What we know:
By secondary structure, the chain is α/β, with parallel strands linked by helices. Helix content is about 50%, strand content about 15%. The chain is built from 13 helices and seven strands. The longest helix has 27 residues.
Amino acid sequence: MRETMNEILSQAGMSSSTNKPDPVKCDFCGNDKPQTQIEHPFKKEMRWVICACPCEIERLEQFKREQEVKAKRIRINKVLKLSSAMDDIRTMTFDNYKVRKGAEDAHKEIRKAIDHFADRGKTGVFIFGETGNGKSHLTAAGGNELISKGYAVIYITEKDLFSRLQATKNFKNEETFQEIMGACLDADLLIWDDFMSSQRLTNEEKDWIFQIINGRERANKPIWATSNITPEEFESESIAYKLDDKGRTWWRIIGNMNCVFNRATNYRKSKAMARALGISVEDYEAGKRG
């Protein structure tokens, strides 16, 4: 047994005596490899050990970094497949996003969430306000910027999420319940568009919502949610019990998100009305109707 161990120690680079061995050249850089002394495990004496060259260590660390980047890229691409309407989402950037009157606070909160993403943990964002006022574009633009920084982001509408989870009951379905739920929990960021848009939630849907909210809270990962609820609904007592009869899901949401009311008006309406009146959107929103 001891002979076997001595052979292993020798193969690991430990000298067979207390004498310092001759220098060993690195195969990569040609410099002498560093040597140090450590105590022999069986004998109370110091022995010389030839260490890895710093350039070898750097090569190994670089290989490890490349593998981690590759693994993360695979993970990101896998997660992205779950996102709703990816072609549309990719076009939503800050380059084509206009900060309209009333959307300043929402824009500032998303920018802050992006710039400090690594330090915010489970702190997410809840943006609510009138339909068509740019909430979806804003969160998608933020998600796209985080994707460019190497984060795994899912953007999904509530309706799409529920329909895809429901479809997993069909054994021929390409996606499994575990794959969808796992991706929602594993992504660095989950952007939940049109949250609470369902007029009436089934008990099963309520359970799905709780699983995702609770799971991401436990994993210390954020959610960015958009919703068309009104300020009156947001402040009402009844909304807390729409998701469950004890209000636990709602208060988890409120406790883990910075809530922002987007006061901007419906941009889709402004575009349609401006087109009908033959004026610019800016003039329409400024009250210049000709």
